[in-house]
Description:
Layout lengths: L9 E9 L2 E9 L12 E11 L1 H8 L15 E9 L9 E5 L14 E5 L3 E3 L6 H23 L9 E3 L5 H12 L4 E5 L5 H7 L3 E4 H6 L9 E6 L3 H9 L1 E9 L13 H5 L3 E4 L7 H14 L2 H6 L1 E5 L4 H8 L6 E5 L5
Parallel strand pairs: 8-9, 8-11, 9-10, 11-12, 12-13, 14-15
Antiparallel strand pairs: 1-2, 3-4, 3-6, 3-15, 4-5, 5-7
Amino acid sequence: xxxxxxxxxxxxxxxxxxxxxxxxxxxxxxxxxxxxxxxxxxxxxxxxxxxxxxxxxxxxxxxxxxxxxxxxxxxxxxxxxxxxxxxxxxxxxxxxxxxxxxxxxxxxxxxxxxxxxxxxxxxxxxxxxxxxxxxxxxxxxxxxxxxxxxxxxxxxxxxxxxxxxxxxxxxxxxxxxxxxxxxxxxxxxxxxxxxxxxxxxxxxxxxxxxxxxxxxxxxxxxxxxxxxxxxxxxxxxxxxxxxxxxxxxxxxxxxxxxxxxxxxxxxxxxxxxxxxxxxxxxxxxxxxxxxxxxxxxxxxxxxxxxxxxxxxxxxxxxxxxxxxxxxxxxxxxxxxxxxxx
Length: 341
């Protein structure tokens, strides 16, 4: 089936470049403007929902050079229904999820009524999750599950000791706390927002730590406090997380909210046998993605997901882009695309 590019125009949020400034404005697009893969196998998806992630905030505000193609439709993930397909793997009517692969950066993203992507970007939506729940999870929650799987693969089991989650009130952190608590881990939630302690306890956190307490330890080796950690911060926070990880423990690192840098020593690695596990959610192979989404459908408590989720229409998303960069957005934000313009 060849995808028809003469279909009616549709609404979208468009980012354009004006010198050093990024402009974000709602407008319309033609189907012919959507990106076709040279290799074929494209799938046209009517987008139902997306989400607001830290990277979306960077792109929309221009706070970092995330966007490398202009004009750009932001939105690094979506769930929707296949409208047309050149791939044998997907048929019209299939429910699908896309995360990563440069969407909203080099490939037109999710904040539009339609998206055209290679079939390799997609996974089937798992049973047991609604479209809105998929984007309540979104890239952040999916990354959290990849972190949990990484810790499990490194042998960090609930009996080994507590698990620290930094940035615990954010998108990745909220879902990580919920999953780990359901799996039987004692979760220590670290956050720079003490007013959200009750929220984190409600997600299943056994102990609340301040951001300053985690970073207070100095030097290459501190007191052994946790068996593992999910870190979204990087920088000095990650250095001190590593310094306080127990012998044989592991840290899954997936973010740079504090800093891209990492000033540490080899001491935790060679004296305590600590593992630093890099977690990427952008280019993850298909089977790993499918497994993670299947586990999210079973291992993430629905009530915790609902407690961590807010929903906005796409037409109202622009002010939140700056807020998420300032750490002012709690949990997960679902962006309703269909009927949201």
